[in-house]
Design goal:
Mean pLDDT: 89
Number of strands: 12
Keywords: Signal
Distance between the termini: 59 Å
Structural class: alpha/beta
Low-confidence stretches: 1-29
InterPro entries: Solute-binding_3/MltF_N
Oligomer: single chain
Pfam families: SBP_bac_3 (PF00497)
Helix content: 25-40%
CATH class of the largest domain: Alpha Beta
CATH superfamily of the largest domain: Periplasmic binding protein-like II
Length: about 260
């Protein structure tokens, strides 16, 4: 009588290791990637040694070490970074969100980390604005600083597209400009990444002058975006994804992020 085959956990684990190792032959020492980064502390910035540093840089550097794969880091503002990837002049950009537009010219990796966007207001002003979401904010006279081209959440995109936020939005050049306008009472608040906003406030000496509003804005995942036009060996991307999954499983991603505070 034929007996059913029931693979053991050890056998499944061995098969996983074998599959992960398959791409390594073609993505080994010859692997070389040109990856673009931008100034976005604490995720991406310049370290004390003058080299790229930050959460995203450490995560991708550790992944490249495990693959192994050599990396050439190239700096560019985010719009330029995405254009370089779209044109195949760079192999990847790190720490970006997933959008339909970017899927047209890139290949998203496994998520390298999670993050959240929050509403930043002046210290003691959160209770003055009892909003539960952006929809209720849009129905008020709240002055919202917005960096052109930013995609804070799906709700934000829907409200912007419908025109519901048109009376609220005040354009700001960047996060630093938004912080300065907030302190001068030219805006009531602005949306930014949680870690990014707190890091910027600390650098500007304004950590005690702002509050994170309790309103939910967005939780999101950040990815590496590989260029379709660069014709990267698919085995390299497969290997990168497998290594990132391994780093998540063994706690490396959590450890690196925790080094930058809560």
């Amino acid at each position: 009588m034929n007996m059913p085959i029931r693979p053991t956990l050890a056998a499944i684990a061995a098969l996983f290791v074998f599959l992960v190792a398959l791409p390594a032959a073609s993505a080994g020492a010859a692997c070389h990637l040109r990856i673009v980064w931008t100034e976005l502390p604490p995720y991406q910035t310049v370290g004390a040694d003058g080299k790229p540093s930050g959460i995203d840089i450490e995560l991708v550097s550790e992944a490249s070490r495990r693959m192994p794969c050599a990396i050439d880091w190239e700096f560019a503002p985010r719009p330029r970074a995405l254009l370089l990837v779209q044109e195949g002049k760079a192999d990847a950009v790190v720490g970006v969100g997933r959008t339909v537009e970017r899927e047209a010219f890139g290949i998203f990796s496994q998520p390298i980390r999670e993050g959240r966007n929050v509403l930043i207001v002046r210290k003691g002003y959160a209770a003055k604005f009892p909003y539960q979401n952006l929809t209720s904010l849009a129905a008020s006279p709240f002055r919202l600083g917005v960096v052109s081209g930013s995609r804070y959440s799906q709700e934000f995109e829907d409200l912007t597209r419908s025109g519901a936020l048109s009376d609220n939005i005040i354009p700001v050049q960047n996060g630093e400009s938004a912080m300065a306008m907030l302190m001068r009472d030219r805006i009531d608040g602005f949306i930014d990444g949680y870690r990014i906003a707190l890091n910027r406030a600390a650098q500007l000496g304004l950590a005690d002058d702002i509050d994170v509003h309790p309103m939910f804005v967005n939780e999101h995942k950040a990815f590496a975006l590989f260029s379709q036009a660069a014709n990267i060996d698919p085995a390299i991307i497969t290997r990168f994804n497998a290594v990132i999954m391994g780093m998540e499983a063994d706690g490396t991603i959590t450890r690196i992020i925790s080094n930058y505070g809560s």
